[in-house]
């Protein structure tokens, strides 16, 4: 049984500019318990059990929905082999950055079914989470048993799965994976795909290593754009063959995006996510002495790729921005034993993704306020079956709100990072526009640098079937 931390409380937020994906207005918001019950001008109430929040001069955004984070791993895994945040610490970072709901990538134990994976991580959510959580079970082996379990998953409110293409297992089981994706679509499940080609990456890594170029300064060369493009083209082909919707995670390059745009123009259900590192950084970072801290999969790309991705955000060919939060401590990332064959991919990004996107995107007029909401909340809520409970400020929706000071200017500092990683790859980056108060289902869970929510107050969010 989930705990209700805010059952009898009421909150009145006054004077803020409410911004949704398709509208904005300066109005008050009345919250009772976990839901928004009224939105209007100059609301008044005689409720004695009322918390009033003055939001004059502030923007009120829907709580961010980050559909792609890594905050759990199998119980059998050794801690030193994985990222350092759990659902509690990840929630701290997310809430401080205006994110109230996260989609967790959940890896199976050997032989574990998707439903068993979900049950295991749901127990962790009940103990650890402050944000609300939905779960994407990873599937490495698409056996008949797994394929036939998908309709049950959807009926239970778990309507997404995750597949990794850059592996020998995917290539060896490509027919079975296609069957899996067909069943997923027929069941109302969205398939998330990590698109890089195993054979190209393997060949390039072998060639570089044979030539004495195995250090991570050659990382971008080991996973070239063509490896992403080929995999994206395969994913699009599977989508066209099966009719099943495909969600391409962390797309990084212009050429891969162009392939998706062609598919979208054919009305194929291809949806695209990118992540902050591809919007703010380029592959020259790998040449720095600390270049290994920037290693993610796929690698950073060129300035032309960055420009194309920003254009894709504005044009609507990219639907979401997600962190792919997979944090390591700095000394783990800089371990001298790491090379092209031994990686620790991933960075912590939950705390700064939305502020940086607002500062670099909205304030520099690359995207609008409304597009910001689409990319960080509404589109993810719609794609993953959460809307209109999440992703919008509306009567009847969950009171997930980020009250934003659009003029607050401060640099990113390692000392302020809530992630156990303890550092940010964006140290000293100047950012304007930060959340100062965040509510999750009507409870104030973050305020002026302090986490107020309790571990275990987060919930598993059961979802609607996808209908594309």
Low-pLDDT stretches: 1-5
Rg from alpha-carbon coordinates: 21 Å
- Report the CATH architecture of the largest domain: Alpha-Beta Barrel
Strand content: 15-25%
CATH topology of the largest domain: TIM Barrel
How many domains make up the coordinates?
Answer: 2
Number of helices: 14
The coarse silhouette is globular
Largest sheet: 7 strands, mixed
Distance between the termini: 32 Å
CATH superfamily of the largest domain: Metal-dependent hydrolases
Helix content: 25-40%
Multimeric state of these chains? single chain
What structural class is derived from the secondary structure elements? alpha/beta
Q: Order of strands side by side in the largest beta sheet?
A: 3-2-7-16-17-18-19
**Strand tally, please?**
19
Task: Report the CATH C-level class of the largest domain.
Answer: Alpha Beta
Mean pLDDT: 96
What does this structure look like?
The protein has 468 residues and is α/β, with parallel strands linked by helices. The protein folds into two domains: 111 residues, Urease, subunit C, domain 1 (Roll), CATH 2.30.40.10; 321 residues, Metal-dependent hydrolases (TIM Barrel, Alpha-Beta Barrel). It has 14 helices and 19 strands. The strands form four sheets. Strands 3-2-7-16-17-18-19 form a seven-stranded mixed β-sheet. A five-stranded parallel β-sheet has the order 11-12-13-14-15. Strands 5-4-1-6 form a four-stranded mixed β-sheet, with no helix packed on it. Strand 9, helix 2 and strand 10 form a beta-alpha-beta unit. The longest helix has 18 residues.
């Amino acid at each position: 049984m989930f705990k209700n931390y805010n059952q009898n409380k009421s909150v009145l937020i006054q004077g803020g500019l409410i911004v949704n994906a398709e509208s904005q207005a300066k109005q008050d918001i009345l919250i009772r318990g976990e839901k928004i019950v009224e939105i209007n001008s100059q609301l008044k109430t005689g409720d004695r059990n009322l918390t009033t929040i003055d939001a004059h001069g502030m923007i009120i955004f829907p709580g961010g929905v980050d559909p792609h984070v890594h905050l759990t791993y199998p119980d059998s895994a050794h801690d030193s082999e994985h990222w350092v945040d759990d659902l509690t610490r990840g929630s701290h970072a997310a809430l401080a950055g205006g994110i109230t709901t996260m989609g967790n990538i959940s890896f199976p134990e050997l032989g574990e079914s998707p439903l068993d994976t979900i049950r295991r991580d749901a127990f962790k959510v009940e103990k650890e989470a402050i944000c609300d959580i939905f779960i994407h079970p990873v599937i490495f082996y698409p056996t008949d048993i797994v394929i036939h379990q998908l309709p049950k998953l959807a009926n239970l409110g778990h309507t997404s799965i995750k597949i990794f293409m850059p592996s020998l297992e995917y290539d060896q089981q490509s027919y079975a994976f296609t069957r899996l994706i067909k069943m997923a679509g027929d069941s109302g499940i969205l398939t998330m795909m990590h698109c890089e080609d195993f054979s190209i990456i393997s060949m390039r890594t072998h060639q570089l290593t044979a030539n004495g170029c195995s250090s991570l300064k050659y990382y971008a060369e080991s996973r070239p754009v063509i490896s992403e493009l080929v995999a994206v083209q395969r994913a699009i082909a599977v989508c066209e063959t099966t009719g099943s919707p495909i969600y391409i995670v962390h797309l990084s390059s212009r050429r891969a995006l162009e392939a998706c745009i062609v598919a979208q123009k054919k009305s194929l259900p291809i949806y695209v996510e990118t992540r902050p590192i591809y919007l703010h950084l380029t592959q020259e970072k790998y040449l720095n002495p600390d270049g290994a801290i920037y290693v993610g999969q796929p690698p950073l790309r060129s300035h032309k790729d960055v420009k194309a991705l920003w254009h894709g955000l504005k044009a609507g060919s990219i639907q979401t921005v997600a962190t792919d939060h997979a944090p390591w401590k700095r000394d783990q990332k800089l371990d001298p034993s790491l090379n092209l064959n031994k990686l620790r991919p991933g960075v912590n990004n939950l705390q700064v993704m939305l502020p940086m996107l607002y500062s670099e995107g909205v304030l520099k007029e690359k995207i609008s306020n409304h597009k910001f909401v689409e990319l960080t909340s509404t589109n993810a809520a719609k794609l993953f079956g959460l809307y209109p409970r999440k992703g919008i400020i509306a009567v009847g929706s969950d009171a997930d709100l980020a009250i934003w000071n659009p003029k607050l200017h401060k640099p990113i500092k390692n000392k302020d990072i809530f992630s156990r990683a303890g550092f940010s790859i964006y140290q000293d980056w100047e950012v304007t526009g930060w959340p100062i108060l965040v509510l999750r289902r009507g409870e104030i869970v973050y305020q002026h640098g302090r986490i107020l929510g309790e571990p275990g107050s987060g919930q598993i969010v059961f979802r609607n079937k996808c209908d594309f």
